[in-house]
Every structure is written in structure tokens, then in C-alpha cells.
Amino acid sequence: MSDETPVVLIEITHPALSVPIRLSTDSADLIEQTPAGQIRGTRSTWRGADPETEPYLFIVASAILPSDLKDAPAAGSLVLDNLSPEISKLARSYTDLATICLAQVYASSPDLVEQEATGLQITSVAITGTEITLTYTREERENEPFPKGRLSRSWYPGMHQ
User: Fold this and answer.
1) Which one of 35, 56, 70, 126 is CB 3.0 to 4.6 Å from 22, fit for a cystine?
2) pLDDT at 1
3) Cα torsion at 84, 87, 92, 93 (round to 10°)?
4) How far, in Å, CA of 40 to CA of 57, rounded?
């Protein structure tokens, strides 16, 4: 057994965001000292982030990483402490799906990915007074229509005259 501290790095992207939201479950690195206090997080190059200008900011969270079992869909959840009304407001402001990527690293080697799940869609957000739960999944291939295109009037009007 290792004394290493496991860390989950989180990247959330959405077309309405100019830059990804980068979060970390570890507060090892001092990112910035402000009059209000310290901003802490993790400096990592995961997903092409610049460790100096694009750190993963510390947030109190627990993550259930997607299962890698053969017959189970890639699904999981992320529970964030609801520390600010702005977090809830941001979570409620989107009507279309955001993409979330997660990586498990160790605090001593934040650039070395031990486990990774990318391209997941945030499918639901549950907000209470104390926490926000994001549920994410990858669409199962079995649910994709086959054949991909439907021979409907809207897609192929020449066939339906």
C-alpha cells in the first residue's frame, strides 16, 4: 500500500465557456496569495494545461469515477460542496450538455495519469443547500440509432413525393 495521496483532476468544457473550468481535489500548491486569503490547487499538464497559467483549482469534492467494467456504461458522479450561490447559479444557467473529463493522479506526480475518463456528458445536476451533484455518462452505443440516417421526409424529401 502506498502513502501517496490520490487526486482527481476535473475539466469541464461547454461552448458558452471561453476557457475550461479546471478543478482539483488537492490543495498542495499555492496558486495565488490574495488579500482575502490563499488560492490553492494542483499544477498539472493534463489535457494540455499550462501549469503556471492554467492550474486546477482546489474544491472540496468527492468523485465517483466511471466504471471500466465491460458490461457497465461509463457513468459516475461528482459531489461538490455548495459553498457559494454563484456555483449554483452557474450550474443552473446551461440548458445544453457540458462535457466533463476526469483523471486520477497522485499528489507527488500530477502529470502522470493513473486512470482517465474523457468525453463524458453531464446529464443532470442536483442542487441542495449544502452540495451540488453532477451526474455524467457516456452515451451507450446500443442507444445510438442504426442506421444512423433515417429515411424520413425531412432528411430525404425527394424520396417522399
Assistant:
1) 56
2) 43
3) 120
4) 6
Cis peptide bond prior to 147, omega within 30° of 0: yes
For residues 84-103, average pLDDT:
82
Q: What amino acid is encoded at 16 in this protein?
A: A
Give the model's pLDDT for residue 82.
Answer: 77
C-alpha cell read off for 137:
455518462
- Alpha carbon distance 104, 89 (integer Å): 28
Q: Residues for the chain: how many in total?
A: 161
- Identify the pLDDT of residue 66: 77
Q: What is the mean pLDDT of the chain?
A: 84
Pairing between β-strand 21-24 and β-strand 131-137 as defined by DSSP bridges: unpaired
Which pLDDT tens digit goes with each residue over 48-92? 999 999 999 999 999 887 776 777 667 889 998 877 777 777 777
Residue 116: CB atoms within 10 Å: 15
Contact (CB, 8 A) for 4 and 107 = yes
Pairs from 144-151 (Cβ < 8 Å, separation ≥ 24): none
Average pLDDT over residues 133-151: 67
- Give the integer Cα–Cα distance in Å for 161 and 145: 25
Sorted by sequence, the CB contacts under 8 Å of residue 41 that are 6+ apart come out as: 23, 24, 26, 27, 29, 31, 55, 56, 57, 58
